Amino acid sequence: MGDTLIKVEDLCKIYNPGENEVRALDHVNLEIKTGEFVAIIGQSGSGKSTFMNMLGCLDVPTSGKYYLNGTDVSTMKDNELSVVRNREIGFIFQGFNLIANLNAIENVELPLIYRGIDRKTRHKLAIESLKMVGLEKRMQHKPSEMSGGQQQRVAIARAIAAKPPVILADEPTGNLDSASSREILGILKQMHQSGKTVILITHDNGIADQARRVVRIMDGKIESDTINQDFGKGEEVL
Ligand SMILES: Nc1ncnc2c1ncn2[C@@H]1O[C@H](COP(=O)(O)OP(=O)(O)O)[C@@H](O)[C@H]1O
Ligand SMILES: [Mg+2]
């Protein structure tokens, strides 16, 4: 584990400023080092997705600072943010967000087109990352021809194909049964072991306990930040 990758200082996000304002993030301070595996846990409405949107450069805070790899991204404009986002972050969502009429390999290739990667390299990267998630036999399958767990593995392959250093997963197992959830968590652990920084957002203690560090958020504030002593000591219980 290495340098500071993510640093947020007094981060606030206020929706609908004024009478009906919602303080979704309320003076959040957090530091994450390169290579960490962190779960961010909180109840529904606690501010997890808002935080993910900030960390993932999908949105900017109302106030406060966000340094990603030493660069202040909290005041960037949309076009600058999208450059940083494309380079640094792989997203995994609860709903997979795959394109129904594209097969696995095409789904993984798609965002690589926007990154300006040539066809041959795209194909190679897509195959590589589908193999990494154990889907070498499903590359020609469309989402409707795969189980939920397999679809989420395609989504993970898509997230890692361009080799971003940070993986941001928002409730990645929220739509999955427990066997598929275990698979997905196993893959996220593998990503962490291969050196990626993994940030896993969840409302589920059993899932959060799989991470090395657990940050608990409540009403837009960090309530606790603990190291999981059992991390890496064998079988997970889900
Ligand atoms: N675009 C928005 N406009 C107004 N309020 C929002 C918006 N997005 C989220 N909120 C509110 O901000 C709070 C945090 O929401 P969210 O970050 O989605 O929480 P979580 O992901 O933990 O369920 C909630 O009270 C929610 O209703
Ligand atoms: Mg959410």
Number of strands: 10
Biggest sheet statistics: 6 strands, mixed
Radius of gyration, in Å, reads 18 Å
Strand percent estimate: 25-35%
| Cα distance spanning the termini | 27 Å
The overall pLDDT, averaged over residues, is 94
Main-sheet strand order equals: 6-7-8-3-9-10
Choose one word for the global shape: globular
Give the helix proportion (percent range): 25-40%
- Which residue ranges are poorly predicted, with pLDDT under 50 across at least 5 consecutive positions? none
Count of alpha and pi helical runs: 7
Which ions and ligands are bound to the chains? adenosine-5'-diphosphate, magnesium ion
Q: Structural class from helices and strands?
A: alpha/beta
Helix/strand order, N-terminal first: EEEHEEHEHHHEHEHEE
Task: Walk me through the structure.
The protein is α/β, with parallel strands linked by helices and 238 residues long. It is 32% helix and 28% strand. It contains 7 helices and 10 strands. It has helices at residues 48-55, 78-88, 104-114, 119-132, 148-160, 178-193, 205-208, and strands spanning 4-15, 22-33, 37-41, 63-68, 71-72, 89-93, 166-170, 197-202, 213-218, 221-227. Strands 6-7-8-3-9-10 form a 6-stranded mixed β-sheet, sandwiched between helices. Strand 9 and strand 10 (221-227) form a beta hairpin. The protein is globular, with a radius of gyration of 18 Å. The two termini are 27 Å apart. The mean pLDDT is 94. It binds adenosine-5'-diphosphate (ADP) and magnesium ion. Adenosine-5'-diphosphate binds at residues 15-16, 22, 24, 42, 44-50. Residues 15-16, 22, 24, 42, 44-50 line the site of adenosine-5'-diphosphate (ADP).
